[in-house]
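hey so i finally got around to running the thing on that chain from the lab meeting. sorry it took forever, my laptop kept dying and i had to restart like 3 times. anyway pasting the input first so we r on the same page abt which one it is
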Amino acid sequence: MQRQANRSQTIAKRAPALVMRLSRLGSFHQSRLSFMRILTRRMAGEDWTFSRPVFEFDAKGVGHAVYCAQTPDRTYSLIAFGHDLPAEDRSDRVIATRWDSTFTVFDGVPDAADIERLRQNIPLQEAGRVSEKELSVSRANRSVRLWDHVVSCLAAGVQPDQAQIDKVGYLMRTTAVYGSGKLGAADREMIADRPECAAPFQIEMLSVFLTRAYVRDLVQHMADLKGGAAAVNLDADIARRMGIGNSTGLGMAPFLVNHPKLLNNWISAREEAIAIVRNVPSATDVEIATFKELLNRSILSADIWHSEHPIQTEKLKRLRSDLSELATHIANTDLHGPHPWNMLFSWAEGTLGEDAQECLASLMLEPYGRLVDHLADQMSDKERHAFRIDGTMRVADLRAILEDAYGWALNIDWTEKENCARAWYISQEKLEPRLGERFEEPIAPYEQPLAPGRDAANLYAALKEEDADGNLAAFLLAHPEHRHTVRRAQIVEHAPFAEIRDNTIGSDLVPIDMLRCKLSFFGATHFDPRSDRWVRICMFGNAPFPEELQSSQNDDWSYPILVEAAK
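ok and heres what got predicted. didnt touch it at all, straight out
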C-alpha cells in the first residue's frame, strides 16, 4: 500500500514575507514543478510519438525542417528555417533582425502552402505576420566556436572535446520564444482547455524541446556533408549533455509584477510541495538513497556551473561551500528518524545561504513525485476575466491588507533618491521594458506602474484621512489614481504570494533576481549573468531526446549524470 503524506500539515507553507524577497526569489532552482519537467513527464506518460517528415538543408545549414509531436488528441509541428547568417549580423540583442535559425510551432501538420507562407514571414520575426494556426514564434543563434568545433570534429571522424562542450553547454541559444498571442500567434485562451496546455508555457517548452532535436540533427547533417565517408555520428551521451541556451534580458523582468495571480499560483504550488514533504513522517531507504544521489549530482552541477559575473561568482562560491557542508551534515545524520525532511530543512535555514536552502527545497521534492506532481495542475491562472475591484470594501479593511502585505514598503522613505532611483519604461524602438536612472534621464513621464511597494505606501498615506467605515467606491471616485494599487491589494488578500515584497525601483535593485525566479520555473539551469540586467541559461540540458522518452526511466534528467565518478 502506497504510503501517504501526513495531511494534518502541522508544518505550514513558509511565510510570503520570507519567500517573496528578491534575494530569495533570485536563488530559486529548477524542481519537479518546473515547466520543462511537467512537459517531459506528460510526453512520456502519454506515449507521445515524434516524426521528422521534412529535413532539407544545404552544406551551410540553409533550408527548412518539420518536426511533429503526436499527442493522444492532436499533432503539433515545429517548423524550423535555417539561414546563412554573416558573422557581423549575429546578435543576441532583441533589436537584432537576422538569426541563424527561426521557428514556429504550428497547430497541426503544415502543408506546402503553409510552409511557403511561413517561409516568407517567420524569418522576419516581429516584422512578419503569422496566423492563429501558429502557436509560437522563436529564433536562435549558433554558439559559433562550439558549433564549428563539433562540425569539424565529427567530419574528421572524432568526437568533440567534452570539456569544451561542458563549458558552453549548448550549440544554439534562443533569443526569444514568443507565444500567447504575441506577433499575431494564437492567444492562449484558444488552447488553454487542452490537457497538454493546462500547465503554464507548455507550447513554448515544446518549441524548445523540439528545437534541441533540430540542432542536433543539423550539426550532424553539416558534419556529414563536410566529412563524407570519414564523418562519425555524435555520441548520444555527449549530445544529451547539451541543451538549448537562452539569452534573456529586462523584457522578461516585469512579467512577475504584471501577472500577480499567476506568480502566486507558481510560488504557492512550490511552497505547498515543500510543506507536504516537510510533513512526511518518515523516509524509506529508497527515498533517502534517491535524495543522496541527487544531492551528489547537484554538487557536480554546481562544480560545472561557470560564470564570470561578480555577483554570480560569489553566489557560486557560497553554493558550492554550502552543498559540501550539507553533504557532510547528511553523512552524519540519520534520516530514518521522525519528520527527517523538516529536521533537515530547519537545520539548513539556520546554517546555509539562500541559494543552498532553495536547492535543498528542490532536492527534497525529488523522491515524492506521487505526493507533489499533481500541484502542476494549480499553476495556471484559469480566471479569464479581469479582477474586479470590490468597491464595497471598508477603508479599514484595505488598510489592514496594506499593513500586512506591504508593511515593508510603509517603512521606506520614498522621498529619498536612493529608494526611487530607477524607473521602468517602454522603449520606443522595440516596445520592450527598460530600466533607467530616474534622476539622470528624462524618463519619469513615461514610467510604467512597476513599483507596487511605492504605490502601496502612497495609497496608505492617502487613506489616513478617510473614514475607517467608508467604502472604497467613494474613495476611488475622488482618487482614481489609486485604482491599480487597490486592485493589487485585493488580489494579494486572497493570493498571498502574488507580490514581490521588495523595492523594484531602488538603487540596489538587481533585476536578474526577477529573471532567475521566472526562469527557474521554466526549468533553466546554469544561470550566467552578463550584467545585472541580462542572463544566459541552459534549457533541457541532459534531457532525453524525443526518441528516447519512452526508454528513459527517470524524471531526474535536469541533474547531470555522475559519469566522472565512474572513471
